[in-house]
Amino acid sequence: MSSITPPPGWGAAPQPQPDGSGLWNAPPQQQPDIWVYAGFWWRVWAFVIDAIILSTAEGILSLFFGPKINVDWEELPIPDASSQTVDVVNIATTSVPHASPVSVLIPHLHAGSEWHTFGILLTLLPMLYCVMFEASSFRATPGKRLFRLEVVTLQGGQISHLRALLRFVIKAFLSFPLLYIGVLMVAFTQRKQGLHDMIAGTLVLRHTKPAPIVPFPPHD
């Protein structure tokens, strides 16, 4: 089993200090980035933002590309002793409508065959949204990007489209349906990985750069 190189700042061996770096008058050395694993709540808020964006996009698509819904009315009689019905016109013209048997109009909605195609489009939209953004140079969906989160490989590289697709499928069919256990694992695993992260071999990082430490000379 191959070993995984730990990220800087999380178990990595300390780097040797150049000569003179410990002097008070020495210029500050450039410090490397530190990997910070994205916690549970950071990812929850990112998910909420993504859900709002997807809901808005689906609503706009439904206005322009949604199927046309037709309403057909069917007249059902209310049975009585005479087995007769009265339509809407007769009810409107009679002075005592309740004295005669009446009928009930039942609406039937017909969306047509276009509804199936539109339903498939709405189903594929979240997958395309996550895969295309996470496998791009952004390395994150807009919601994750807003909170400075990035989805990377275990070595910190950009994930492929196939890995992003695997991550989404595991999240959609295992992490969420199984009582959200695969998602709650983020709060308890060492590197804040959900079930979909472990299977796909990904990490969600919140990159931060350490503030440079500027030494001050001691007072005489």
Give a description of the structure.
- There is one protein chain.
- Helices cover 38% and strands 12% of the residues.
- It has helices spanning 40-65, 88-93, 114-134, 142-146, 161-175, 181-184, 195-200; strands at 70-77, 103-110, 149-153, 202-206.
- Helix 1 packs antiparallel against helix 3 (114-134) and helix 3 packs across helix 5.
- The longest helix is centred in the N-terminal third of the chain and has 26 residues, at 40-65.
Provide a concise account of the structure shown.
This protein has 220 residues and is α+β, with helices and mostly antiparallel strands. The protein has seven helices and four strands. The radius of gyration is 31 Å and the shape is elongated.
Q: Strand order of the main beta sheet, please?
A: 1-2
The profile of the biggest β sheet is:
2 strands, antiparallel
**Beta strand %:** 5-15%
> Treating each run of at least 4 consecutive H or I residues as one helix, how many helices?
7
How would the global form be characterised?
elongated
C-alpha termini separation: 57 Å
Give the overall average pLDDT.
Answer: 76
Provide the gyration radius in Å. Answer: 31 Å
Q: What's the arrangement of secondary structure elements?
A:
Elements: H1 40-65, E1 70-77, H2 88-93, E2 103-110, H3 114-134, H4 142-146, E3 149-153, H5 161-175, H6 181-184, H7 195-200, E4 202-206
Antiparallel strand pairs: 1-2, 3-4
Helix pairs in contact: 1-3, 3-5
